[in-house]
Amino acid sequence: MANELAGYVITGLGTGCGFALVGSGLVAIYRVTRVVNFAQGTFAVIGAMCASSLLSVLPHGIAEPLAVLAVALVGLLVGFVAIGRPGTTPQAALIVTLGLAIFAYAVVVLVWGDQPRSFAGVPGAVTVLDGRVQSHYLLVIGVTVPVFAGMALFFGHTDLGRALTACASNPYAARVIGIDVRRMGLLAFAIGGALGALAGVLLTPVQQITFDSDVTLIVNGFAAAVLGGLTRPAVTLAGGLLLGVTQALVAGYGNAAHQTEIALGLMLAVMIGRAARRPAALEEPT
């Protein structure tokens, strides 16, 4: 029993890292533009599909980064369409990203077909805490942790990262001091595209991807991002891990058909609990 538990937890952490990467892309875009990007799950699907095609002619280690770079350019294109026109409100841009996500279904089916795709990841299995897990899950975790650490350093300790944060905090003041808010928003969409693609590339070897896999990814990624108020990557990572582990435990010990609903129900309970505590913390002392 303990062996099974360890295996389920490690598997859930790996899956949760993928959800967190999708959520972090949402956070990167929202904190700069205040736009909720409903095409974020699409970035993961396109990234996985691109990697599967590139791997037919290129080796591992080259194909995957090229796929991530390609989708970063797709993210930039989505940004041009969504926020490129001056005066576009975040609400209007949200609708544009939703429309682009639906349009992407047709593009993906036209280019790659409607059959599930996958490709080989890290082979074999390893023993962790007496539980056997696929080695590839450790790669997912091992890549995600430094990515989030790098994001923290980028946003907190570089001039470009501070410029992006300034656009989120006060766009008017950012313009006054010479920051091109529109350009920063486009950069945020490119970063979101890269993070979404990375999630798709990492998860595809252990979970087959199809043209409509973006639904599961965006729902779980959005839930993780909302836990952090769509502004805090570290809390988004924690939310993604919570979702992944909960789903793995439900699938292992219960009914896999309801793992997503139960995990999202748990996340909803956590968010309601946080919201209920916040007003109490803001009350004036008597």
Automatic annotation (TrEMBL):
Keywords: Amino-acid transport, Cell membrane, Membrane, Transmembrane, Transmembrane helix, Transport. It is found in: Cell membrane. One of its GO terms (molecular function) is transmembrane transporter activity. InterPro entries: ABC_transp_permease, BCAA_transport_permease. It is a multi-pass membrane protein. Pfam families: BPD_transp_2 (PF02653). The keyword Membrane applies. Belongs to the binding-protein-dependent transport system permease family. LivHM subfamily. PANTHER family: ABC TRANSPORTER PERMEASE PROTEIN, BRANCHED-CHAIN AMINO ACID TRANSPORT SYSTEM PERMEASE PROTEIN LIVH. This is Branched-chain amino acid ABC transporter permease.
